[in-house]
């Protein structure tokens, strides 16, 4: 008990501060994008194509981070792109978590044929190259945010299901579950009231990691032009555009790349940090 | 001059003393027991000689002379070479002391080739000869076997053969029978004695079992809390142990001749006395 | 294993037939009549019911006939086999790089355990693991394609080169034919994408192997080897390493399948003419037979990798070899 209490009081490490800080900044940027963005992210001005960022010679005043080949303001597109990234990360992450955890709990606690069925599906899913699978699904469902989110959920539920299934099995074998069963509680009640709270920390950690993955998947799909329409500002489409003009205007690639890099790193470090935080004994 | 001379050896983990001013001599061809309860530091002395002390333990003073060379003053590589040539270890647990992914043959011969520069053929001939010496039937087949294919007793025989392979002048046996079945224990003990006599090797026998000491050793050193309490020849010790703790230890040892006797644990008063002595020594040295 | 492959086949087959866009319509010029559409549908077998189509397709696959690509009108099998060597070479090169980097880090970390060197290695591993291959690829493009352009960042081989090869295993064949000029050109194209794929895997190998090594270093046979006169480096590489590899191996096998999955986007990023790049084109063109063929091939590769890992494990572990 003393251990558990000291664990809760453990200081939040620099890892959590830094990643939490960056994500907070990002959320603020995304929420207030209409106020913060100096330009309309869709506005093209072909006379102002490929203007460098402000500290380089030839920069156009008002375009802090320069412009892309169509003369669109990089900073504004970054801010609006953060909206898409965080929206997809949050919604897709939560939905994946719900689906995967539910299936994992059922497989791990009920065992028997539901487990056989779910495990078989997990095996088949593991044999799909995930990127190809997601591109395939998008091609089938058509582009758009909803399709992206569905694709992520359909592909990534196994990440949760595998881990939660294993944990539910361990928990299900423990004495407190047996005693709850003996006293005549319904199985679904035990699953929700006894097992679920015990797998919750794992779930939160996986959810954090999944949000980072969702952000990346969205970027990859925009990169191959299968996300929302190519005009709309997403980090992935900016990267795609930047990859083409890399030798003429590196900044079109660098700024979204840096944002994406820090965001993904932050989600994953946040997840790792939370893992330590919840479970100071292991690791 | 003794073959192994340890003078005033001290070691610590952080502030906690592990060895306190230990002095110990083993003459060439002599069999000396190092006796004590767990935590007395007896295994640490063996590890200090062989240079395999855990990283957290630091030697804080004293010297270890092996065949006249001051081991602690040597450079690490030089020291390893000296030890590899002159000393060997018979480990405690034969189940974990052989590398599971390697055949028995190379585990005996490789260092003869690598460290001592033997030819491969000589090393193999030597290994076969040694396996026969430790009474392993069909040495050729055993050379080709993996450790998991051999019983615990067989593995310990292999390890004994391996320890004697380079004709070391000193063998350190670290409780070599505790991990074995009682019936096998006796055979292994007899074998170690037999090999020691045939090769005329000095043997430092680390044990907590005075019954074993009586069987194979000539001299013994009693340790408590990292400190030497008593040194004596085996006959003298069993006739009249000098230290109160030694007497108590002897009374607590079962005798093979009289299995029904009642055993008395070491009395608390003696342990308290010793602890006070250690505490005093600690205050005066720091 | 076969059930898994069959499951993949079923899912791919039915998922892509829910496609709302009509691939046939896209192949014909605007204004083509109903008749033309019906003729083409019959040609590709789209006029039959789904279960019928599936049976026909599976029967074909079992005979090595994966159908005909809609966009290129060539047999899927020959298209796919033409690209497969490029992807295999890329994945294997990435694996080699990952093993080299990962092992060096693990061995260095073990050699200097408990020091700042080990701490630095742990932090590097954490970073490398957190960021996926796609982002490493972009970063490498910036660093070694633009800032300090030493490697090619697009394509598989310089188009100007005349390739005298009989197979599509260019890298392998260039060595056999002693054409080291071509070999160098290939490596210079391949190195960046392979490194991008390798970085996360290298971090995993480093982490697992180091943990495994450190556990092994406490065991008695390692201590015994020290008393034989072997130095720390020899003890780590010759006593601890062979034992530490085994537990690492199975996990690395799973991770290698992830790496193969990663080739899809990395090939796209580096315009590398492999299977993954072709797959994305196939999806964009809605080339159903080609998509099916590629996905099945990927699933087959995943399954084979797992099989090879199991076999290697049995081969390296004497307990299983004689069991």
Report on this model:
- The complex is a heterotrimer of chains A (283), B (286) and C (323).
- Chain A is mostly helical and 283 residues long.
- Chain A has one domain: MetI-like (MetI-like fold), CATH 1.10.3720.10.
- Chain A has helices at 2-8, 14-31, 33-36, 74-110, 112-126, 130-141, 145-172, 175-182, 187-223, 235-244, 250-278.
- The radius of gyration of chain A is 22 Å and the shape is elongated.
- With 286 residues, chain B is of the alpha/beta class.
- Chain B has helices at residues 42-50, 76-86, 104-114, 120-133, 139-143, 152-164, 182-199, 210-216, 234-239, 244-251, 268-285; strands spanning 4-13, 16-26, 31-35, 57-66, 69-70, 87-90, 170-174, 202-207, 219-224, 227-233.
- The mean pLDDT of chain B is 87.
- Chain B has eleven helices and ten strands.
- Chain B has a six-stranded mixed beta sheet, sandwiched between helices. In chain B, strands 2-1-4-5 form a four-stranded antiparallel beta sheet, covered by helices on one side.
- Chain C has 323 residues and is mostly helical.
- Chain C has a single domain (85-156, 164-322), classed as MetI-like fold (Orthogonal Bundle).
- In chain C, α7 (133-147) crosses α11 (232-269).
- The longest helix of chain C is centred in the last third of the chain and has 38 residues, at 232-269.
- The two termini of chain C are 23 Å apart.
- Chains A and C meet through α5, α6, α9 and α11 of A and α1, α6, α7, α11 and α12 of C.
Keywords summarizing the entry:
heterotrimer, A: 283 residues, mainly alpha, MetI-like fold, C: 323 residues, elongated
Helix content of chain C: over 70%
H/E element sequence of chain C: HHHHHHHHHHHHHH
Which consecutive residue ranges of chain C, at least 5 long each, have pLDDT under 50? none
Please tally the β strands of chain C and state the result. 0
N→C terminal distance of chain A: 19 Å
CATH homology group of chain A: MetI-like
Report the portion of residues of chain A in β strands: under 5%
Percentage of helical residues of chain A? Answer: over 70%
- Total domain units of chain C: 1
Report strand % of chain C. Answer: under 5%
What best-fitting shape of chain C do the alpha-carbon axes yield? elongated
What is the CATH architecture assignment of chain C?
Answer: Orthogonal Bundle
* Number of helices in the DSSP assignment of chain A: 11
